[in-house]
From TrEMBL:
The chain crosses the membrane at residues 18-38, 285-306. The keyword Membrane applies. Keywords: Membrane, Transmembrane, Transmembrane helix. This is Uncharacterized protein. It comes from the Bacteria.
């Protein structure tokens, strides 16, 4: 074999070995970078889980404060002398309307048969119907039986036809719960609270014990009263937690929820899965691009270095 041919063969072998050496050195570096990327993605998910769960806690506490304020006003109203035998219902109606100047939608009072006695959504003295909504009547029964205020699930008002929630409190007459006095709350008020704290693209919702949407930070009117998604119903049976699911719009989300001990309602927070995975996708592309660039540059350098080693033999 001619010496120059042998040297060229040796040059090719040297180039190949240098390329393999560079590749062998870079592979562990890339794998380690991939491990760091995985750790970063896991840390980002934990951060989103923490933020979503914390938001659900904060919103649940804010809703509870709203309900506690309404309950205090209602319990004070239930002690009005106008509701005792011989009392003045017209005076009570005026008193109830004064309470509504700052809170609630309307105030109503029913006896144990469901017959409405007072309803501020109607002029005083107007004929009033018997309430028939089973959710409302269930709240009345609980108030009568326990002698304590009750927060209802979403129901449809008999006189207004609106979807509402209420706080029910018993009116005690001679030591017995004679009437159920309630203050109704428009879910739109709750939706305003949710929308004021929800980050852009996140979804925050209130779900009652019957798995119905009470309020929502996004598209509230569209989904008011709708049944919650199957995955939410399945994964929100405890006091709080995290799950993966979908919104009613079909968007994949990381979900977090908190259950209120006051109302039994759940506050659910949905973080778009695209937002959770975005840092991982971005860093993956950066890693792949950087690895490809470094590998190409290293191979080119190895080939150039091999030429430098073999070059003198060709002279």
């Amino acid at each position: 074999m001619h010496p120059s041919s042998a040297f060229r063969h040796r040059a090719l072998s040297t180039r190949a070995r240098l390329v393999l050496l560079v590749t062998a050195v870079l592979i562990p570096v890339v794998l380690f970078a991939g491990f760091l990327l995985w750790r970063f993605a896991a840390a980002e998910r934990v951060r989103y889980e923490h933020d979503a769960l914390e938001l659900s806690h904060q919103v649940s506490a804010a809703i509870d404060r709203e309900l506690i304020g309404l309950t205090a006003a209602l319990e004070a109203l239930a002690t009005s002398p106008s509701l005792q035998p011989g009392g003045d219902l017209a005076a009570f109606d005026t008193q109830a309307r004064a309470v509504l100047r700052n809170r609630g939608s309307f105030i109503a009072m029913r006896d144990r048969t469901g017959q409405q006695i007072v309803n501020t959504s109607r002029p005083f003295g107007s004929p009033l119907p018997v309430s028939t909504d089973p959710i409302l009547l269930a709240a009345d029964r609980q108030a009568f039986e326990t002698g304590k205020p009750v927060v209802s699930d979403l129901y449809t008002g008999t006189t207004t036809g609106l979807k509402l929630v209420l706080i029910d409190a018993p009116v005690m007459v001679r030591g017995q719960a004679a009437f159920a006095l309630n203050i109704a709350l428009d879910p739109a008020r709750l939706s305003e609270i949710l929308a004021s704290v929800a980050p852009p693209e996140w979804t925050v919702a209130i779900i009652d014990s019957r798995d119905r949407i009470v309020a929502r930070s996004r598209q509230h009117e569209r989904y008011l009263g709708s049944e919650a998604t199957p995955d939410l119903r399945t994964h929100t049976t405890g006091a709080g937690g995290i799950w993966n699911g979908q919104t009613l719009e079909g968007m994949a989300v990381l979900g977090a929820y908190t259950r209120s001990s006051l109302s039994g309602w759940r506050v659910a927070v949905g973080v778009p899965a695209s937002a959770v995975h975005a840092p991982l996708r971005q860093m993956t592309w950066i890693l792949l691009g950087s690895a490809a660039a470094v590998l190409a540059a290293s191979i080119a350098l190895a080939v150039w270095f091999a030429e430098g080693i073999v070059g003198p033999w060709d002279d």
